[in-house]
Amino acid sequence: MTQTPEYISATRGDTVTISCAASESVYHTVWKYDALAWLQQKPGKPPKTIIYKVSERESGIPERFIGSGSGTDFVLTIKGLTEEDEGDYYCMQYRTITRTQ
Asked: The Ig-like domain covers which part of the protein (predicted)?
């Protein structure tokens, strides 16, 4: 997976986009969907899934986080940026997801 840009400098209220390119399709032939997730990691905390199945938001994730794309090209858009959004973001192809609530 290749993400661009490597770094983003933005201010509150901005819209930012992060692109993710896979070397091959992330389509899961059993599940019948693109198995692409976006993770957010804040300093000193473990990563957490914010988007799965390309565009589905995890519970509690604001609507301003928008996942899109298909095939090998995907985008995470964050609208109305806030200070709470600061951190590292990763795209990831997955085979299974274990959810703990």
From this structure: 1-101
Q: 19-55, pLDDT tens digit by residue?
A: 999 988 887 877 788 889 999 999 899 999 999 999 9
Q: For the purposes of burial, counting CB atoms within 10 Å of the CB of 51, is it exposed (0-12), middle (13-18) or buried (19 or more)?
A: buried
The average pLDDT across 66-92 equals: 95
* Residue of 49, 57, 73 lying closest to 1 (CA atoms): 73
Could you say which architecture CATH assigns to the domain 2-93?
Sandwich (2.60)
